[in-house]
Amino acid sequence: MSDVYFERELETMERGRIEALQLERLKKILAHAYGNNPVYRKSFDAAGVRPADLKALSDIARFPTINKTVFRDTYPMGLLCVDRKRVVEMHMSSGSTGTPVVMPYTQADLDQWASCMARCYAMAGALPSDVVQITPSFGLFNGGFGMYHGARRYGLFVVPTGAGNTARQIKLARDFGTRVFTGVVSYGIRLMEELEASGQALPELKYGIFGAEAFSDAMKKRLTEGLGIEVFDIYGMTETGGVGTLGQDCRAHDGIHVWEDHYLVEILDRDTHEPVRDGEIGELAITALTREALPVIRFRTGDLSKILSREPCACGRTHLRLAPIMGRVDDMLIVKGVNFFPSQVEQALMSIPGVLNNYQIIIEEENGVTDVRVNVEAESGVTGFAVEKVLKEALGFSPKGDVFAPGALPRQEGKAKRVFRRLADGTLA
Ligand code: DLL
User: Fold this and answer.
1) Average of per-residue pLDDT values in the chain
2) Which residue is closest in CA terms to ligand 1's atom 19?
3) Which ranges of 177-319 does DSSP label H, i.e. alpha helix?
4) Would you state the pLDDT for residue 123?
5) Alpha-carbon gap, residue 216 to 345, rounded angstroms
6) Are 202 and 191 in contact (CB under 8 A)?
7) Residue 291: its pLDDT value, please?
8) What is the pLDDT of residues 247-261, one digit of tens each?
9) Which residues, 6 or more positions from 386, have their beta carbon under 8 angstroms from its beta carbon?
10) Is the CB of residue 284 less than 8 Å from the CB of residue 322?
């Protein structure tokens, strides 16, 4: 397969060289965090480890893990590892609990972000001077600016629309000949629906880069076919430095390549937090090897995945591949003794002909028993009974299924909210 690269040599390094580079960088970053931040120093001291104890990559397991709580407890910048005067930008996610997570950047961090993101554009097949339309919002959310920094680095022509106003997005895509469309997954769906409803097409459009939300294979297929483009699953988060820092799938669509020269990947057992073997599902933990202002060390992301392969890929890249994110550790629902993830509900719903793309999973208590109701938009002819049958086969129990007319269920700007709880007064939260 012929492929486009942004940093060919680094993206195709043989595994021995990747691991040697990781070890060298890991030693440096542990010393940097320990030497320059009291929160890290205290936590290493409490675990009885020093940066100098790390002799091999596997020794990372001796160091303490962190999670979002540390960010929240040290708000706004208690994890900073450089002089405050060197910080040039910040991004922030408020998450579902509303307590913010802040990521500060030095100029070198912005350059690192731009390079990771530029690799993602190249990996999708984009060429310098292609037109890219950036629809995640520009602001505290890292999506808009990250895609912007990377596009400038790669030399794309940026149409920075930001979020919303789909009719205008379509007009601009036509007027400027957008070849690469970027967005959160639910915005890709919105674009597809609006094009279908208005009978328009975007003949210049070739690539869609979507992420920030769980992305079932069935939804990828719908977007690929509905938009008539090649669809990519891009991954990243505030804590690792934003969209694209962790990687994306390539044109072989055989897992998400993680930029291993910049990040060390571990998959941990969800309960014990001990590393698991390749191929086993667990919580993804990330150590940032090349970030200055706030390098995360063994950050438990809350995302569930598994390592698919460390072998070279058909695209020529050698960086390991992760399974698409299956859901978040705390997203797992337990109803009638059955554990399942919202992404399984999506996968099942999208397999039903006539079922549309907008749905809600509602957890409700009736007489002290937890139950689940799935609301979905569908074309006429699809019955609640048919939906329940498919859900029963997929999940192993029967949630209630209610069918709504196209456009009847609420939609959110930005990341879609899919799971709701019914409060005592009947409203959804
Ligand atoms: O969502 C970064 C991003 C922006 C990625 C635009 C892709 C496109 P946060 O708001 O900090 O950052 O949310 C990070 O979103 O831990 C995952 O749970 C989820 N997430 C991000 N990308 C994917 C993906 C951005 N490709 C959190 N598939 C992460 C599934 C994803 N979940």
Assistant:
1) 96
2) 212
3) 185-198, 217-227
4) 98
5) 9
6) no
7) 98
8) 999 999 999 999 999
9) 352
10) yes
Read off the pLDDT band of 367 (50, 70, 90).
Answer: confident
Reported as half-sphere exposure (CB side, CA atoms, 13 A), residue 282 has a value of 21
Backbone φ and ψ for 41, nearest 5 degrees, come out as -60, -45
Q: Which amino acid is at 171?
A: K
Whole-number Å distance, alpha carbon 210 to ligand 1 midpoint, is 10
Long-range contact set of residues 34-40: C-beta below 8 Å, sequence gap at least 24: 36/81, 36/82, 37/79, 37/80, 37/81, 39/70, 39/74, 39/78, 39/79, 40/79, 40/81, 40/297
Q: Tokens 């350059």 label which residue?
A: 111
CB atoms within 10 A of CB 112: 22
Measure 386 CA to ligand 1 centroid, in angstroms. 32
Question: Would you state the pLDDT for residue 99?
Answer: 79
Measured N-to-C along each axis, helices 15-36 and 38-47 cross at an angle, to the nearest 10 degrees, of 110
pLDDT at 161: 98
Strand 230-237 and strand 242-249: the pairing is antiparallel
Is the CB of residue 255 below 6 angstroms from any atom belonging to ligand 1? no
**pLDDT digit string, tens, across residues 105-157:** 999 999 999 999 999 999 999 999 999 999 999 999 999 999 999 999 999 99
Q: To the nearest 5 percent, what fractions of the chain are helix, strand and coil?
A: 35, 25, 40
In angstroms, the Cα distances linking 289 to 33, 41, 264 are: 11, 17, 7
Per-residue pLDDT tens digits for 71-99: 999 999 999 999 999 999 999 998 666 67
Task: Return the ∠ at Cα 143 (arms to 255 and 146), rounded to 5°.
Answer: 90
Q: What is the atom index within ligand 1 of the atom nearest the CA of 210? A: 8
Whether the model pTM is above 0.90:
yes
The DSSP bridge pattern shows strands 369-378 and 400-404 to be parallel
Closest ligand 1 atom to 238 CA: 11
Q: What is the pLDDT of residues 2-61, one digit of tens each?
A: 689 999 999 999 999 999 999 999 999 999 999 999 999 999 999 999 999 999 999 999
**Segments of 279-318 assigned E as strands:** 282-288, 299-305, 307-309
Rounded distance between C-alpha atoms, residue 123 and residue 283, angstroms: 26
Helices 384-395 and 342-350: crossing angle in degrees, nearest 10, is 130
Find the radius of gyration of the CA atoms of the chain.
22
Average pLDDT over residues 197-218: 95
Ligand 1 centroid, distance to 211 Cα (angstroms): 6
| CA–CA separation, 363 and 338 (whole Å) | 13
